[in-house]
Structures are given as structure tokens and as C-alpha cells.
Amino acid sequence: MTYAEFRRQLGKAGLTAKGFAMLIKQTPNSITNYATHGEVPPHLAIIAALMGDMAESGLDFQTTLARIQFDASKPRGGTVKGKFGGSKQPDMFIVGKKMEQP
Predict the structure, then answer these.
(1) Distance CA 8, CA 49 (A)
(2) pLDDT tens digit sequence for 15-35
(3) Integer Cα distance of 86 and 78 in angstroms
(4) Pick from 25, 14, 16, 7: nearest CA to 66
(5) Is residue 4 a contact partner of residue 40, using CB atoms and an 8 Å limit?
(6) What is the rounded distance in angstroms from the CA atom of residue 8 to the CA atom of residue 55?
């Protein structure tokens, strides 16, 4: 599904990309980043299409989604608070020796 069609389906459901992201416990940027690719993954396309059709038929998808309990996805990568770009490798701590600078 193209990103434009994805947005149209969300519009039928009365949602923005940010609102959709909050419903599925994702960050808004993870959803809007698909605009640069031009397409959304099939699982998100299916969800958006079903929500759009449910809303168009007068069915309340929000109540259905509220019954499902799930945890938010964990962020990918090696992010470290206060360290731009995360940590590519683990820090090595050597106890009892000072490391010499070249």
C-alpha cells in the first residue's frame, strides 16, 4: 500500500499518523518515516484498511483495540541516554590500571 493510500485509510478512520502510532504503541516518527519509502509494510496497511472500513461501516474499532493488551515495541539499536548515536560497542572497564594515551 502506498503511503498516500495509508493516510487516506487513516483519514476514513478519523486518525492521523500520530494517532495511529499511539494506538499501536509506536513512535510517531516510526510511522511517518514510511513516507520517504513511499509504501508502508503490509501489516500496517492491513490494520489501516480494516480500521478505515470499520469506521466507514459505523463500527467502533477503538473499543476493540482497547481490549487487546500488549507492550510497546522496544527501540532498536544500541541507544544510550546522554550519548548521541548510542553505543556501538560496550564500554570496557579495566579495574586497577590506568590506560595510557598514545
Answers:
(1) 9
(2) 999 999 999 888 899 899 999
(3) 5
(4) 25
(5) no
(6) 13
Q: Which three cell numbers, joined as nine digits, stand for 96?
A: 586497577
Phi-psi map region of 58: left, alpha, beta (phi>0 left; psi -120 to 50 alpha): left
The cell numbers describing 34, all together, are 514510511
42-56 and 3-12 helices cross at what angle (nearest 10)? 30
Q: What are phi and psi of 83, to 5 degrees?
A: -125, 105
State how far the alpha carbon of 20 is from the alpha carbons of 7, 52, 86, 102, in Å.
10, 11, 27, 52
Q: What would the pLDDT profile of 69-102 be if each residue is shown by its tens digit?
A: 878 877 666 556 666 665 566 666 666 656 555 5
**Range of lowest pLDDT (47-51, 54-58, 95-99):** 95-99
pTM of the predicted protein model:
0.68
Using DSSP's 3-state secondary structure scheme, residue 92 falls into coil
